[in-house]
Structure to design on (249 residues):
């Protein structure tokens, strides 16, 4: 196996066999408290080896809980997607299947939509991290914050391949961290505690004889337990205490 394919195989093994993820962990000093109202996650994967129609594979998942999914054929053509509360990731590899000219194509889509209500009025600075955004040619996606109550898009950062667009300006090229390949956007967001909001993240990648990898992450929002959740936790602790008291008697 060629060195580049060995490296791809090791990455694939780490993701698929060990269930690892490449999503970074970000912290934010002044997170804005919110109550999660609903969540919806989606992933779509496909692998299509050229000239091997009988090996074409595809699968899609929709869930209210986070998703991590993968599909591969012959160990070289594969796709991976991860959709979580404030982070999504898509990774594809379309390496050579055989020593001849036969190629494989892979696509991956990850999407997360979180509907929430702020616990206070105020302005929050959300940090949006786009890793590998400008390093790869075959990716697309967006991050959008919608005021559901007012039916208004507060901001939307979108791209397709190397073209950037949306309803607000992207930062200048200097905002890209050359060491990590991450484009950082600080999005000022005015919240009304009487309104509901929806944060949507979407991305997709496509690879044939290359590898494509994109990560989106949002920080600056801090979910707090719902009153019903707190009640259940409290009831559980009280119930456990009563059971122990009865056992001692």
């Amino acid at each position: 196996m060629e060195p580049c394919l060995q490296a791809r195989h090791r990455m694939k093994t780490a993701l698929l066999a060990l269930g690892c993820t490449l999503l970074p962990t970000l912290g934010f000093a002044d997170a804005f408290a919110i109550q999660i109202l609903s969540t919806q996650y989606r992933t779509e994967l496909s692998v299509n080896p050229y000239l091997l129609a009988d090996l074409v594979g595809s699968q899609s998942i929709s869930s209210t809980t986070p998703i991590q999914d993968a599909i591969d054929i012959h160990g070289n053509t594969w796709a991976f997607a991860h959709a979580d509360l404030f982070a999504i990731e898509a990774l594809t590899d379309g390496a050579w299947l055989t020593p001849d000219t036969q190629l494989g194509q892979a696509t991956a889509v990850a999407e997360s939509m979180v509907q929430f209500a702020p616990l206070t009025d105020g302005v929050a600075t959300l940090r949006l991290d786009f890793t590998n955004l400008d390093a790869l040619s075959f990716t697309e996606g967006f991050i959008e914050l919608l005021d559901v109550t007012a039916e208004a898009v507060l901001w939307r950062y979108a791209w397709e391949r190397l073209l950037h667009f949306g309803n607000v300006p992207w930062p200048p090229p200097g905002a890209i961290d050359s060491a990590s390949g991450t484009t950082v956007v600080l999005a000022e967001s005015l919240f009304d505690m009487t309104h509901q909001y929806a944060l949507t993240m979407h991305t997709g990648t496509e690879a044939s004889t290359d590898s494509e990898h994109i990560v989106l992450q949002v920080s600056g929002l801090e979910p707090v337990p719902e009153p019903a959740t707190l009640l259940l936790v409290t009831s559980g602790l009280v119930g456990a205490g009563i059971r122990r008291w009865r056992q001692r008697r």
